[in-house]
Amino acid sequence: MANSRSEQKQNVTISLSRQVLRKARILAARRETSISGLLAHQIECLVGNEEAYQRAERQAMALLENGFHLGGVIRAGRDEWHER
Predict the structure, then answer these.
(1) How far is residue 75's CA from residue 77's CA, in Å, rounded to a whole number?
(2) pLDDT-derived band of residue 5, with 50, 70 and 90 as boundaries?
(3) What is the 3-state secondary structure (H, E, C) of 46-64?
(4) pLDDT, greater one: 61 or 74
(5) Cβ atoms 18, 27 nearer than 8 A
């Protein structure tokens, strides 16, 4: 099955120090993947986490805007509470 247009992949180029690149090769080999696969997975996780955070933030803000009914009844008016 062919990838849809939104699922097509595009190459990117990054620059790493030789020491980091060497360690990345070792890490990728231990995980039985390539450096490209390793980076793709980590970036996908970062993007997914950010999207989940933003979704949770929107839900929390919606709850705060609606307020919470904590029970009870307010029997006195503002002026009564602030009498001097």
Answers:
(1) 7
(2) low
(3) HHHHHHHHHHHHHHHHHHH
(4) 61
(5) no
CB of 56 within 8 A of CB of 62? no
Residue 7, both tokens: 């699922």
Average pLDDT value over all residues in the chain: 89
Give the CA angle between residues 75, 78, 82 to the nearest 5°. Answer: 115
The two three-digit tokens of residue 39, written as one number:
């980076």
User: According to the model, what pLDDT value does residue 19 have?
Assistant: 98
Longest CA pairwise span in the chain (Å): 77
Q: Where are the domains of the chain?
A: 39-70
Structure-token pair, residue 71: 């029970």
| CA atoms in the 13 A half-sphere facing the CB of 11 | 2
CA pseudo-torsion sign 50, 53, 59, 65: negative
